[in-house]
Design brief:
- With 110 residues, the chain is an all-alpha fold.
- It is 71% helix and 0% strand.
- Helix 1 (14-24) crosses helix 5 (93-109) and helix 4 (67-86) runs antiparallel to helix 5.
- The longest helix has 22 residues, at 39-60.
- The protein starts with 13 loop residues before the first helix and ends with a helix.
């Protein structure tokens, strides 16, 4: 599926969808995360990932304001995608997304 065209409300496991998309489109992610893409494209990817993650966060923590923690989490998620691709996807998309979700939950629960 094209992540950039995926409606955020249709995504069930946001982190896993993002890692699966990165696995299928590793060259694309290496270009944008390696600084070789236009800033506009990187902003678009960040925006889509933010929208996908926001839906899930609102379900889990309906009363919180997420602008700052979400910005932090998306940056971390993109860095983790970069690391994961560079390390030849040693973890499955499901395993790495589970680790990402565990870390995100700890951060948000503070």
């Amino acid at each position: 599926a094209d992540l950039l065209a995926c409606p955020p409300e249709k995504v069930e496991r946001p982190s896993q969808v993002i890692f699966e998309h990165a696995a299928k489109n590793s060259t694309f992610y290496r270009v944008i995360l390696g600084g070789q893409a236009s800033p506009e494209l990187l902003r678009k990817v960040r925006t889509v990932i933010t929208q996908i993650q926001m839906k899930q966060l609102r379900l889990l923590f309906p009363s919180k304001n997420f602008e700052v923690p979400l910005t932090f989490l998306v940056g971390g998620l993109l860095s983790l995608v970069d690391w994961w691709l560079e390390n030849r996807m040693e973890y499955s998309a499901s395993e790495i997304s589970e680790l990402a979700e565990q870390m995100a939950t700890k951060i948000l629960k503070g």
